[in-house]
Amino acid sequence: MSEVKGTDAVDYIRRKFGNYPGFEEGVQQFHTMLELGQLLYDARMEAGLSQETLAQIVGAETDEIAQLEEADYEEFPLALLQRIAHALKKELKILLVPMETADECEKQLSPA
Questions:
Q1: Are 40 and 70 in contact (CB under 8 A)?
Q2: Cys staple from 37: which of 9, 59, 66, 71, with CB 3.0 to 4.6 Å?
Q3: Structural domain for 95, as ranges
């Protein structure tokens, strides 16, 4: 899976808006959404399925699959994720892990 790296745009946004309450939490949430989207995309490609075919198998709209893969959603559709995992012959696991320090988060989002 590809790693999200920082860009000049991310640095600019962080400088401009980084002092707003909740900004870093929002960045971390979006990073998690991007990771999930990439995992779903990779698994779907490994299975050789189109978004349309996967949507038909799990009883969803093609747009829902696309939104999950693009991290473009507002609610976490756990039941849909479970159906997708089953259709892709994967097991859905959700882990609670210790929060990263601000320095570790910054390192993930900064250019290598």
A1: no
A2: 71
A3: 8-107
The pTM for the full model equals: 0.68
Distance of alpha carbon 33 from alpha carbon 53, whole angstroms: 22
Round to whole Å and give the CA distance between 66 and 72: 8
Q: Which residues contact 17 (CB under 8 A, 6 or more apart)?
A: 23
Residue 60 lies in a domain: yes
Q: What is the reported pLDDT for 64? A: 94
Task: Please name the amino acid found at residue 31.
Answer: H
DSSP 8-class letter at 75: S
Number of separate domains in the chain = 1
For the chain, the first-to-last Cα distance in angstroms comes to 16
| Amino acid (one-letter) located at 88 | L
Express each pLDDT in 61-108 by its tens digit. Answer: 999 999 999 988 888 789 999 999 999 999 999 888 787 665 665 566
Q: What is the pLDDT of residue 107?
A: 62
